[in-house]
Design goal:
The chain is built from 13 helices and 15 strands. About 40% of the residues lie in helices and about 15% in strands. The protein has about 400 residues and is an alpha/beta fold. Strand 11 and strand 12 form a beta hairpin. It folds into two domains: about 140 residues, Aspartate Aminotransferase, domain 1 (Alpha-Beta Complex), CATH 3.90.1150.10; about 240 residues, Type I PLP-dependent aspartate aminotransferase-like (Major domain) (Aspartate Aminotransferase, domain 2).
């Protein structure tokens, strides 16, 4: 029996090493990685620049408290400010911590202005923002809060895509709207530019803040640095993690200057967040992601993936109910149980993909994916669908079987 908590339905599969788009099991079997550690390994495995940066940084200072200046953190923060809407950055270890900082920043902004009654946040059903007590309350999913006592107060949930419902939910106590522009765990249905623009307009009209969870859809995954750029809006706060560290634990909360100004000493903190080792690697990731042409190629690969999946959907319309997502955050709503399909991909085709809500198979490869990788992945999906069809046709009660005589 494992000494670990039983919070994961773990496969017995264990990996020895990784290289580029592939992970290698302990027996040497290669697996095509369209999972990326749940969108974390943005540059794939064993990227030479990340490896050399890690080795160099490991020979210097691993950790100091945030009571001291950390040059790599200062540099990474300034680069993120220069590349985004933000004026200030707070570094964390994870996406949930980045969301906690975003929630606290939004509420404290109004408290500091004397509007102490404005602490409620409108969020959305089917969302996922992390596993802390605050972030499970923010997500509109009863399953996440079940068994943990009363959820943290101050969140109202509406159905995503319904701007009228959002407007109706606004009260004098509302301080912000929190949304994933492209949900990951929730099923990969991308918000439309019109809906995102409508949220921005409502925030402006009511003096609220627009807070975006780009933990999974940010950092180049949709083909732009952040997904909000596709809607031509400017948020007030954005939480980011996963791809920002390329596999090393790192997250960040980005905010406009006036919004972050109330977060003075004593209002928030993190022991490990933004330490020298993490930020050195974060800077190395940014070297690659913001290099000329990198995001253009990610965008192109997103279009290539979408085209090949559309062709696959025409071949297997009974398996592919709907295609969702944006760029390299793609969801396939399946006609068969997603856990069965993902397991067959892993065990029979040696390809890794991630299940999501609403019976969706999530394809979230490293951003270095090539067209050949995409073709290979689609062929593996086709092989699984064809195998399922063959097995169903061979069963006595398969789709074409004659009913039994009385």
């Amino acid at each position: 029996m494992s000494a670990l908590y039983g919070t994961y339905a773990r496969s017995t599969l264990a990996f020895e090493r990784g290289e580029g788009m592939r992970l290698f099991a302990q027996d040497g079997t290669p697996y095509l990685d369209f999972h990326a550690g749940i969108a974390v390994n943005s540059l794939g495995h064993s990227d030479p620049h990340l490896v050399s940066t890690l080795k160099s940084a490991a020979e210097k200072v691993w950790h100091t408290a945030n009571t001291f200046t950390i040059p790599e953190q200062e540099r990474l923060g300034q680069r993120l400010v220069d590349a985004t809407f933000a004026d200030a950055v707070f570094f964390t270890n994870s996406g949930a911590e980045a969301l906690e900082c975003a929630i606290k920043t939004a509420r404290h902004y109004f408290w500091a202005k004397g509007e102490t009654e404005r602490y409620e946040i409108i969020a959305f059903t089917g969302s996922f923002h992390g596993r802390t007590m605050g972030t499970i309350a923010a997500a509109g999913n009863p399953h996440y809060v079940e068994g943990f006592g009363p959820p943290l107060a101050g969140f109202t949930h509406v159905v995503p895509g319904d701007l009228d419902a959002v407007a109706a939910a606004i009260t004098p106590q509302t301080c912000a709207i929190l949304i994933e522009p492209v949900p990951g765990e929730g099923g990969c249905t991308a918000m439309t530019p019109e809906f995102m623009q409508g949220l921005r307009r409502l925030c402006d009209e009511h003096g609220m803040l627009l807070v975006l969870d780009e933990v999974q859809c940010g950092y180049g995954r949709t083909g732009r640095f952040f997904a909000y750029e596709w809607s031509s809006i400017v948020p007030d706060i954005v939480a980011v993690a996963k791809g920002i560290g390329g596999g090393f634990p790192l997250g960040a909360c980005l905010a406009k200057g006036d919004v972050a100004a109330s977060m003075v000493p004593g209002t928030h903190g993190s022991t490990y967040g933004g330490n020298p080792l993490a930020c050195a690697i974060g800077n190395a990731v940014l070297d690659r992601v913001l290099a000329p042409g990198f995001l253009d190629e990610v965008n192109r690969m997103g279009q290539v993936l979408a085209w090949h999946l559309q062709q696959l959907a025409q071949r297997f319309p009974h398996h592919i109910v709907e295609l969702r997502g944006k760029g390299l955050l793609t969801g396939i709503k399946l006609g068969s149980p997603v856990k069965d399909i993902s397991q067959r991909l892993r065990d029979e085709q040696h390809m890794l993909a991630q299940a999501a809500g609403d019976n969706v198979l999530r394809l979230i490869p490293p951003l270095i994916v090539t067209e050949d990788d995409i073709k290979e992945a689609v062929e593996k999906l086709a092989a699984v669908f064809a195998a399922v069809d063959t097995e169903l046709a061979a069963t006595p009660m398969g789709p074409d079987a004659e009913p039994a005589a009385d």
